[in-house]
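We include the pair:
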Amino acid sequence: MHLLSAANVGERKALEIRSFCAAGRRNPMDQPNFFGDYDTLLELVRNRVSVRKLKPDPIPDEYVNKILEIGRWAMSGANGQPWEFIVVKDPKIKKELFRVYIEENTDFIYWMEQQRDLKLRHPAYQMTHEESVEKQRTTQGWSEAPVLIVIVGDGRRQWATVQGAHTFGRGQSHLTDGLANASMMMHLGAASLGLGSQHTTIHIEDPFKRVLGVPDLLTFNLIMPIGYPDVPSKPGVRRPLEDIVHYDTYDMSKYMTNEQALKYLYSLREKTVPVYRNSYGGQSSTTKT
């Protein structure tokens, strides 16, 4: 089966909307940007978690196309749309990408993590002594996923927006903003189809570019493995809404001192390590690190 064309998907969506409106449920001019349901969206967002162990079973090409179509409609500065997507299904290419990830990207991250206290390190680097986790993380990992979606970015397209967006020193690049928007939309799209996904950020770009023939000028942003989950779902961890919302002005009583920030990070790691462990192997949260 070939991937459906974006035009076909768009035509079908338009037909669904016209049918929806023809049934008397909504005039298309009333709320042109809203045809959904908040509770459904919230449930989807709350239950979507990263899955690091996916079944190798193939997924329908139609599902892949739906995920790509969702990403295509992401927000970007002045509609510059800086993203491009590479769909990887070839087993040899997937394994080569994973080899580069372990030998280049992971090696860099490993040594960076050694600079932190063990209990503050990324969860994956607190579990290096756990055989089942390490096996999934370093010998199989996402190379077993049926589909990888690689997101690359073209920085030239951010010239569509204001010049201030190019001040990288202030972290205002609309390129990275746009790519992040597209990836989040695609994660939600995958979850809505009953699929698991992982957000694999790339820090050492060049070797990955060579594997896929990506031009040097483009940014190799991330790899998104997609497939059916091979582990049970486990709720994620989020800060309470009352801790992060301010009204009219910033509430300084909610501002963390350095000491409070450190305590928060230690507490966060205690909560998130079990979630990471589950995403790799479906192990119980009671397992000790």
Notes: DSSP finds nine helices and five strands in the chain. Residues 1-29 form one domain.
